[in-house]
Recover the amino acids of this structure.
């Protein structure tokens, strides 16, 4: 799984992200919806399962949209590893 995730991570930021009416970038992948938005001083991400209203993971304080997207990818990887019963990466 880790090798596949490394390849996907490399391509993650170049994937075609959609724009919501509110102007946020979002992407559906691996059973989750990732939303990226610019805050007043930094970028942030939110990850939730498709069809769910509750946010599974979030993070902020990123200097670039790419950094926020990669952090979201890593959060999804940790969620997938947890579902598979494997220890999450550090």
């Amino acid at each position: 799984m880790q090798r596949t995730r490394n390849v996907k991570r490399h391509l993650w930021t170049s994937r075609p992200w959609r724009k919501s009416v509110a102007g946020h970038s979002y992407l559906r992948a691996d059973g989750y919806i990732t939303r990226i938005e610019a805050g007043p001083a930094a970028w942030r991400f939110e990850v939730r399962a498709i069809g769910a209203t509750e946010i599974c993971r979030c993070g902020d304080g990123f200097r670039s949209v790419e950094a926020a997207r990669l952090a979201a990818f890593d959060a999804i990887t940790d969620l997938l590893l947890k579902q598979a019963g494997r220890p999450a990466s550090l």
About this structure: The CA atoms of residues 44 and 60 lie 4 Å apart. The beta strands are 18-19, 25-29, 32-38, 43-49, 57-62. The chain has one domain: 2-83.
